[in-house]
Amino acid sequence: MSKTDPLQDLDRLSIAAIRDGLRDGTFTAEALTQAHLVQIRRLNGTLNAIIFENPEALETARDIDRRLAAGQTVGPLAGVPVVVKDPMDMVGFPTTAGWRLLYSGTGGVDLMPATDSPVVARMRVADAVILGKTNVPVLSHTGSHANDSWAGPTINPVIPDRVPGGSSAGTAAAVAACMCVVGLAEETGGSIQNPASAQGLVGIKPTIGLVPNAGVVPLSANRDVVGPIARTVTDAALCLDVLAGYSAEDPKTLASAGKIPDGGYAAGLSAEGLRGMCIGLYGPGWRDQPLSEETIDLYARARSELEAAGAILIDDPFAGTEFAALRAPTVGNFDARGMESVAYDLGCYLRRLGPDAALTSFADFAAATAAEDAFGPGGVLSFLPRLPDFRAAMQDPTRPPDLPEFIALKAAYMRIVDAVFEDHQLPALAFPQMRQELPPLHGTETIQETTVGELNIAGLPAVTVPAGHYASGAPFELIFVGPLWSEAALLMQAYAYETATRHRRPAV
């Protein structure tokens, strides 16, 4: 290849550059796919991001090339190399959720879906080239790492001795290491925002109901959301354009009708997106947990950059409210309320696999995984029995639980959030996504985030964006948080900050 060949610098390869390159004949979809497969061969043995490779990827790329040569219309992500988080159903691949008991290769059973999950189906319709499925911890139980996965730990390509963020650890590592251009992630408690921030990437945690999450191994139908991780705000927005919107398989997505901007999320991006915007800052009114000294310094610089981009900063807009008092961590720093429905949700997920699936009910699931009872002492979800609505929900896992305490909590969060955003005329908040830098890869320390729990319970959207680095080299990121359905505004603000600062560094 010549030195000017764009496939020699995969980190700079964006969705727009791929569109241009395919249109102009600079490269083919097959060559683009091959370049990323070479990157996978080079790095995945060390990083352990991708656990199943898609043998049909090159043929998908060749079909795109044939259609382009024939002048046929192709989808908005034509030829774009993508990865899919393991818990998302994809025909032809087992959905293992990181657990050895759910993978025949490690002595368990295989959950083989009869149909793609809606988000995977939408990526196929958009003509993305799916390169494979990515690593997660057991049942996506942690937002810090994938150390207990049957496939082994995922390594953070930015700073290998620190946690990669979880549970979408593999998706983030594949994007950061240029093994793909964008990846699908999913969050119940930080699993988009944490790995994106840990690896210096852009992550979109959508409003619950914007993107369908049917066909995705659940932890909570009341909290689970699917969203993209990418290297740039624009690429994340273009991926969200494909993912967002109503699906009959997920009735809650009907709420997204009329909430998606005309022309899509990428169309409104502007370098002036912060000018004149009132932006709320982190403080004890939101959460009474202090920032580390180095985080304070990095956040001070970020605040100066926001002001230089035209933002009007509002100190601790939640001061004087009862917002912080609503938080009640269940285990460590994690507030799990709303996850009490997991048994019912798993039953719904298993039924969707089809009548020939190895497991079709929660009772089947419990029997197949009894050797490592997820809810029992020492299990990865052993904290759930402490939740107020859990025992009632478990009395009959075939019936949808009422969850009265969770509903009251969500309502209390939303009353305060709506009032604060209205009173201060705020389009967004901009917080450090973590209170301190990343902990070691191995050990008991977890990521100390600022927005997990509050966002997941309330269902609020957020966008992470690179904002610098600690002295150790660990990424520092801002997270822009907004009211329900404010993804377009958050992306505009994150894009303006990204354009003004350019803090992201290539990981490899």
From TrEMBL:
Pfam families: Amidase. Gene3D superfamilies: Amidase signature (AS) domain. InterPro entries: Amidase_dom, AS_sf. SUPFAM superfamilies: Amidase signature (AS) enzymes. Residues 32-491 form the Amidase domain. This is Amidase.
